[in-house]
Fold:
Amino acid sequence: MNSSDPIQQKTLVEQIMNNSVVSVDSSVTATNVAKMMEDTGVGAVVVLENNLPIGIVTDRDFAIKITAHCYPVDTPVRRIMSSPLISIDSGSDLWIASDLMSTRNVKKLPVIDDDKVVGMLTSSDLVRHIADH
Structure:
């Protein structure tokens, strides 16, 4: 292995994460969250309670939980979020994040530092990073 090979060098989550994250209070309706996702072009929204991240809602949650279970569209987002929240901190090694995403079968990983959402790491981010190196 060549130590100057970029793929072998340590890459931190903060180097490739997306800093633009949408978050909402757990009482917001599923319809309003869906509109926010459409307007902002994101596939996941972090759910907060008392300004602390407690869950995530992805486009898949809408497909499965709203449609398959026939929840009304005005359902509070806390009912359809995935929880407990699987997350990572920005200073973590990318390989650790990748392993976490693989073992927990998640495609979107919120990045949280000191109880604040600072970014989002997606499987697409990982693929793009590997392809660029």
